[in-house]
Automatic annotation (TrEMBL):
InterPro entries: CN_hydtase_beta-like_N, CN_hydtase_beta_C, Elect_transpt_acc-like_dom_sf. This is Nitrile hydratase. Pfam families: NHase_beta_N. SUPFAM superfamilies: Electron transport accessory proteins (SSF50090). It comes from the Bacteria. Residues 1-83 form the Nitrile hydratase beta subunit-like N-terminal domain.
C-alpha cells in the first residue's frame, strides 16, 4: 500500500484548496507542536525520516495536519521510552 510520502504521493484526496492570506498557524498550539518537533529532532530523539514514518503510521484523515504531527510525536516519545 502506498504511503503519503512515497514518490508519486496518493490519489483520491481531491484538489488542494488554497486560502488567500492564510496564516502559517491557525492556533498557537500548532506553532508549539512545530517547535517541539524541531527541538526533538535537533536533540536527536528521532530524525526526520522517523517522524515522517510515524505520521504515516498514525495518521487520521479526520484530524488536522498538526493533530497528526502531535500524534506522531507522542508515538515516537512512547516508543523511545521518553514518556
Amino acid at each position: 500500500m502506498p504511503r503519503i510520502n512515497d514518490v508519486g504521493g496518493q490519489d483520491g484526496f481531491g484538489p488542494v484548496v488554497e486560502e488567500l492570506d492564510e496564516p502559517p498557524f491557525h492556533a498557537d498550539w500548532e506553532a508549539h507542536v512545530m517547535a517541539m518537533n524541531r527541538a526533538l529532532i535537533g536533540q536527536g530523539v528521532y530524525n526526520l525520516d522517523e517522524f515522517r514514518d510515524a505520521v504515516e503510521r498514525t495518521m487520521s484523515h479526520e484530524s488536522s495536519y498538526y493533530e497528526n504531527w502531535f500524534r506522531a510525536i507522542q508515538t515516537l516519545l512512547k516508543e523511545r521510552g521518553v514518556v
